[in-house]
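Researcher: Structure for this, please.
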Amino acid sequence: MVESLRKPGFDEIRSGVKSPAKETLLTPRFYTTDFDEMAQMDLSVNEDELEAIIAEFRVDYNRHHFVRDAQFEQSWDSIDGETRKLFVEFLERSCTAEFSGFLLYKELGRRLKDKSPLLAEGFNLMSRDEARHAGFLNKAMSDFNLSLDLGFLTKSRSYTFFKPKFIFYATYLSEKIGYWRYITIYRHLAAHPEDRIYPIFNFFENWCQDENRHGDFFDAVMRAQPQMLNDWRAKLWSRFFLLSVFATMYLNDIQRKDFYASLGLDAREYDIHVIKKTNETAGRVFPVMLDVENPAFYQRLDVCVQNNEKLAAISSSNTPKFLQFFQKFPIYLSHGWQLLQLYLMKPIDAASAHGQAR
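Model: Predicted structure, token format:
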């Protein structure tokens, strides 16, 4: 086996252990929060729903699901070149995102154990799921002769502080968009098994149900804190987090469109579908939704995609670094302008859209 085919273009900490991807605005984030503030939350308004969701967590429907079987017992040298590189990046990004969730939920479970046992149990059970997902993805990377040192990742990544309500907005959307991403890929490959290049996709149907239940947990927590959802600030923050999650996914996926093409998917069409479904789902808890049916929404995101391509071309050029800044500056301004215009697009009242009183 040729080394370039085995490990195409990846730096390693040591043999077989991939160096973590460079942190950028588009890479999965690691979070921390104000644990004392979260411990003081009164959940009584929606405690019954939270109890019911945690009871589902305890059942652990996927306890025996993430088990590697005979499907994996073969060589994957047929996935080579750029497809191999993009697939390893997909596994790494997914593993890092799941591991980030594990770390946050585990720490929340530990810190809240004595002060808010209901929340603590929910977070501990979700951390169990996320650890299972991250481990399964990391083991998949080993089929490509690489893995992540998750202990090193824990120590080397920077942590973003979010207040509890922002943690809830961000993690709710992360879990729900994860559901729609996984179920969309699963359904596509069920209809087109010839495009299933690797058996991990067979696990996505059950996998996404974990994501969905986690999202329901955060939905229930936010409903227990009505102030997070029913004032003008909630409308502004809902728009911000929806746009942040949608734009990050879109820019990442279009940049890796060849990976989705290897699965028989058009990355742009896939993302538009996921965005619309997640937006609709979020409208069942958030006070507003984004106008993602407006063609201008994606046209502006496409300008951001083009801007990213220009920035990458400048970074890889031989132009001196200090001159690159001046080349990039107007592109950064364009980027900011497009995102600002997206944020200022008139949102949709979620209660009216869903035909229900809030």
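Researcher: Any notable elements?
Model: The CA atoms of residues 228 and 234 lie 6 Å apart. Confidence is low (pLDDT under 50) at residues 1-6.
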